[in-house]
Amino acid sequence: MRMAYIVVLALLLAGCDFVGGGETVLQGNGNLVVGDELVDRIAASLADFETTPEIGDDDLESIFTIIRQQALEGDLDAALVMLKLAGIQRQPEAPEE
User: Which of 1, 46, 64, 83 shows its CA 20 to 30 Å from the CA of 54?
Assistant: First the structure.
């Protein structure tokens, strides 16, 4: 089932006129890094499909675990995600009025 979503994602990317143009950067290690705007557009497109399953807490926990492990292994992009997450989690809460 996940392969079907990968195929859909690949087709979306292939059919979009917004791929490239400075938003897509290929790194030497084989990873594809895309800009935030492209990620937002792909997520919105996937959300429009009736067959896209809802992302549950278990899915988010699995993704977190993978990103955390990659960060601990030295992946700078994953480490940046973890640092941003820590910053958000540690922001003082605004006082209630």
Answer: 83
